[in-house]
Amino acid sequence: MTLVDLTRRVESGMPTYPGDPPVSVAPHADFDTDGYRVSRLELGSHAGTHVDAPAHTEPNGATLDSYSVEELRFVARLVDCRDVGANELIGPDAIPSRLEPGVDCLVFRTGWENEWGTDRMTDHPGLAPATGQACAERGLSVGIDALSPDVTGGGGVPVHHAVLGSGALIVENLCGLDALPTGRTFDLLVMPLRVDADGAPARVVAEVERGLVRNPS
Question: Which of 54, 61, 70, 74 could form a disulfide with 105 if both were Cys (CB 3.0 to 4.6 A apart)?
Answer without folding.
Answer: 74
